[in-house]
């Protein structure tokens, strides 16, 4: 790589995982570009999660909710992945990292919409990994089987259970830095030994 | 059930699997209703497959193709499943059967669109099974890991390889009747022992 | 098959699943042979379960327990399967059915020994299915993700929770007849559409 | 950790993966202890592989082969893991890393013995991870879905295909260093974000 500067493009980066990944790659000397929806207009969200991960009984799962979940958590991943691939194929190398969740491998009760989208994104990651791997583009799917230690989760917990962030047992939520470290690790693997899927959860998590 | 007549509603039933399932349930004394897109306007297709299962390199996978695959193989399944559930919840019982494929569990090279949709449908089936099972609605996902012995496959094979239907080794394609038998079996399982996923492939298949 | 009589050999058949499978195949006109360990000497057990499915903290999991679980739930399956295959290969057809459990796909806390054996048996079933399928021997792995409605379970429940068999909610345990029906179904599938794995659980089961 | 020195105990370390892992941890300042069978008496082997990964048709898979595969690839893992856990539970922390293979998740034709053992080891890893995680012991299962760039593989390839090590395309075998880096990464994860399974394969691998 010599004197070349690496570039990290984060699409849909939010204040939690996205910000931590940005920091991690910036610390590592990368030029970091962040693309996100207008934080002023909508709430501050990660494009790939975007409130689409709510639980709803089947009969309350509207067409709109089902479509939105797919659009944000699956379709956007395909679009961005395809564009990234177009660019990387010309350069002859690159890493594309998708963020999965428990819902990527388990269709739980109440999660028809979100799971469907996350399962779909995982398929995109697999198909891309198999096609692009031999062309030196590394596609990774990270399974975050965890609550992420973020402002959003704190607020949701507070609202749902009354538990304050300070009372949450240490290490029971995954820190965004830990996720960013996994991204960093995956991106730096040698071409002869690539990880295509890795899970991530707190030591105390039931799974 | 006494003198009550069972009703089988087939949504998106085509000339292959759909027709065989219709025959199987009719033989078993069910009243069979078939819903499909206008066969005169479009080609004769199974709603849930609908040409969406084509292989395309990533860069040739258009937005339209990706959306269509999802709409036909995943979204339609959600819509129909939800409506069926609405009806069955009132009656207190029912069986909902989804047809999966190899692409439901494997994102192969070239199948970003179709796999993404089929993964998504599998998530819908799982979420519905977990929510509706305790309410006596049996949701099953059948994994057809096979070429189906149908006119459509014969034509595609002929076009791709020049091999005529008569030359295809016996038992190397799964007969629609075998699939229909699996549907019939799953539908008749006692409530204390339900299958939620079963695979189906020819004895000679590599898997 | 004409006037030929089918033969069902049940190895390690106990009073629950084994007896029900024997009845089902006898009703279907099969000659049924049962091989089991001496019921007078040891407790009445199914060879493939044999009390090996107990939960133990890791540090209490002795070498003997680990070995026994493997010997009964995995090694015996290999030995019997291999002998059955030897015989069936000469005749040119046959079905070999293995009984799996939740522990076949999930290494739960406390189940290092039993899960290890059951995972191992599943591998045997897969390897056999892939080798023997093209030779017309159908190998099936049934995943019984359920408590089985049997005297043994009733007693264990009584001992553990004080709940009497009569108080157990209907349909919350899988009846041996339902399992036997799945065996019967799998055995009668046409060669062009074989199931290699199917799960089975009560409608009310959490999974 | 301050001035404390970490200890890495490698059981069954061979000249390939084991040696590389030893080097990696030594470079990182760890005291490395290696336990292996007498290299003078037997061939130089990794305890957990030990020639047990040979492919055999079912009828040629002897009791001895089946037992040996289990003893070396599964039972030894349980024994060593249990002892390591005993020690780590007293200290209150530790990492236990198991090496898996393609055969850990796929029972391929001809691999009844090896797959059975490797499936079994994966179950041990899962059960240990779930029990020991909350006690701050991190158990990881690495899925090496690759040929490992080692003298043993070179010789086997030469014997099987006549292809010389020099002719093998670069990056088509996973370097032991890449594997060691994954071990190192997993060992250093923060407790709030642990990986329990990760795969590793060359970019050009079909999977």
Defining key terms:
alpha/beta; 3-stranded parallel beta sheet; two-stranded parallel ribbon; 41% helix
Number of continuous helical runs of chain A: 5
Number of strands of chain A: 5
Query: If strands are numbered along the chain, what order do they take across the biggest sheet of chain A?
Result: 3-4-5
The end-to-end distance of chain A, rounded to whole angstroms, is 40 Å
Oligomer: homotetramer
| DSSP helix fraction of chain A | 40-55%
Specify which chain pair forms the largest interface. A-B, 44 and 44 residues
Question: Sheet with the most strands of chain A?
Answer: 3 strands, parallel
Molecular structure report:
- 4 copies of one chain form a homotetramer.
- Chain A has 207 residues and is an alpha/beta fold.
- Chain A is built from 5 helices and 5 strands; from the N terminus they run βαβαβαβααβ.
- The first copy, chain A, has helices at 17-27, 63-91, 112-132, 151-161, 176-187, and strands at residues 7-11, 31-35, 94-101, 137-144, 197-200.
- A 3-stranded parallel sheet of chain A has the order 3-4-5, sandwiched between helices. A two-stranded parallel ribbon of chain A has the order 1-2.
- In chain A, strand 3 (94-101), helix 3 and strand 4 (137-144) form a beta-alpha-beta unit.
- The longest helix of chain A has 29 residues, at 63-91.
- Chains A and D meet through helix 5 and strand 5 of A and helix 5 and strand 5 of D.
């Amino acid at each position: 790589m010599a004197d070349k500067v690496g570039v990290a493009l984060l699409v849909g980066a939010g204040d939690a995982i996205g910000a931590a990944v940005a920091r991690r790659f910036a610390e590592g000397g990368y030029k970091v570009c962040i693309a996100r929806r207008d934080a002023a207009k909508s709430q501050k969200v990660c494009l790939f999660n975007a409130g689409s991960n709510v639980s709803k009984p089947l009969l309350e799962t509207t067409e709109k909710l089902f479509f939105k979940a797919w659009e944000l958590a699956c379709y956007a991943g395909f679009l961005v992945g395809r564009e990234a691939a177009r660019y990387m194929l010309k350069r002859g190398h690159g890493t594309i990292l998708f963020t999965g969740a428990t819902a990527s491998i388990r269709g739980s009760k109440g999660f028809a919409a979100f799971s469907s989208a996350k399962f779909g994104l995982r398929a995109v990651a697999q198909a891309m990994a198999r096609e692009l791997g031999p062309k030196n583009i590394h596609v990774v799917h990270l399974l975050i089987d965890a609550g992420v230690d973020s402002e959003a989760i704190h607020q949701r917990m507070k609202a749902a259970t009354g538990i304050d962030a300070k009372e949450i047992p240490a290490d029971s939520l995954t820190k965004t830095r830990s996720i960013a470290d996994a991204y960093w690790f995956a991106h730096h693997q040698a071409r002869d030994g690539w990880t295509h899927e890795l899970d991530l959860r707190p030591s105390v998590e039931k799974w």
